[in-house]
Amino acid sequence: MDLQTPLIKDRNCSSCPIRHRAVCATCDDDEIVTLDAMKYYRSFDAGQPIMWAGDRMAFVGSVVSGTATIERLMEDGRKQTMGLLLPSDFIGRPGRDTATYDVTAITDVTLCCFRRDSFEKMVAQTPHISQRMLEMALDELDAARDWMLLLGRKTAREKIATFLMMIVRRSTEGEAVLTTGSKQITLPLTREAMADYMGLTLETVSRQFSKLRKEGMIVMDGKRDITIPDVEALQAETGSDLS
Amino acid sequence: MDLQTPLIKDRNCSSCPIRHRAVCATCDDDEIVTLDAMKYYRSFDAGQPIMWAGDRMAFVGSVVSGTATIERLMEDGRKQTMGLLLPSDFIGRPGRDTATYDVTAITDVTLCCFRRDSFEKMVAQTPHISQRMLEMALDELDAARDWMLLLGRKTAREKIATFLMMIVRRSTEGEAVLTTGSKQITLPLTREAMADYMGLTLETVSRQFSKLRKEGMIVMDGKRDITIPDVEALQAETGSDLS
DNA sequence: TCCCTTTTTTGACCTGAGACAAAGCCGCGC
DNA sequence: GCGCGGCTTTGTCTCAGGTCAAAAAAGGGA
Questions:
Q1: What does the alpha-carbon distance between residue B55 and residue B35 come to, in Å, rounded to a whole number?
Q2: What is the pLDDT of residues B57-116, one digit of tens each?
Q3: Which of B54, B76, B144 sits opposite A148 (nearest CB)?
Q4: Where do the Cyclic nucleotide-binding domain residues begin and end (chains A, B) (predicted)?
Q5: pTM of this structure
Q6: In a 3-state reduction of DSSP, which class is residue A25?
Q7: Which among A199, A241, A243 is the nearest to B151, CB-wise?
Q8: What are residue A64's phi and psi, to 5 degrees?
Q9: Residues 70-99 of B with CB under 8 A from A
Q10: Structural domains of chain A, ranges and CATH numbers in brackets
């Protein structure tokens, strides 16, 4: 178990690291007491499935620590990752009892879970939760649509640059907006997982990394740690405007 | 103005053709009276922009008749369509005042609009609406993710077959589920618009249609009307299981 | 430390879809 | 009926990225 995912035991909501960003972010104290009593934690080892497409979904929940992917597999083995699930992201869909996607832990993952039926009742009774769910769903929809542009129209090089900039943005969350200078990041995914996310092969991903490295756009400290000496220059390779 | 989009004048909600499927689907009579007083209709000619990315969104609304696309343009002209908006689909995002995508009418379109600020108040006060919004947002998220698999992993042939099956499904909505036999459909898009939706070029779309035609998978009556003699056979070309 | 496995890199070759170009088709206005 | 503009089809050539194969690194136990 890595350093980012300390063991969580009987933690209550008031000390929860995702309290202000998760589905419960806008709940008041009374509502949190109710959720606190309903919740339970589950852990998954890196590589383990959290949910299979087609399975009954008994629970919904939030990622407390670790990273998971939402993905779908074709019969012949082709795989597409539809999203990354990072701490505070929500898993599951109230109102549907069968999963439509596979969810896989790619690092050790801890979830804050609720039984689906009780959570659905809670959503129906608690505007703070249903409103927050809506907000999160619309954010995810925006992210999915941005990714559709990447998958449908960007070149391999633009895909990699866009992906790296997304990691930069996420690891800069909360800090002052960074659009210039250098930045150090750690990739949360293997080459293969990145390929599945961007609709490429792992060889193409590897080649594009090598090319960016030779050009000095990125500096690699090991396989996973990357320094971007000039964030603006990399942004210019994404094919997107910065708005 | 084509036959599917009759002029709408001072219609009230009770006779609205999308009353049972739109964002107002689960509203009770009192709520409908309120919405009825707030709403206004707007029409757009085929080809007209309904909304530009970056613009202030003054209104939100539902498609009453016609078809529109959600799309994004890159600086160099590459375009990706993220979704089709058909009658009962919702345009706009409460809680955000700037559009993130272009929305374009591809046939003549009539919208049932609300001023954004009043609609946001209504959402906050009306669980029926916020719950329905959530449901619709989650459905769109599922659709977007399905399309990500198509964009990232499917071949041109699979993309076309999947697209055709989507049209079959939509034009069969409400009827008995059709998974066998023959079916007649009308394409709502030009070759170019289909290409932008599927991440292809218009030439590739045209070639794939020709190939399917020569193989007898489809029969074309003009450019836009297509008969699919064997729906199951076409389904088998989509690369997806039928679940 | 040394295997053994997994991940990554690199090379050589191939191919599906893009780019460019030209011709065909169709509806519309005059 | 004719000519014009916007679609659509088809041909030819190119190339970005896929496929297959092998070598090189990086862990991670025992």
A1: 25
A2: 999 999 999 999 999 999 999 999 999 999 999 999 998 989 999 999 999 999 999 999
A3: B144
A4: 23-140
A5: 0.92
A6: coil
A7: A199
A8: -95, -45
A9: 70, 72, 74-76, 78-80, 82-83, 93, 95-96
A10: 7-144 (2.60.120.10), 156-236 (1.10.10.10)
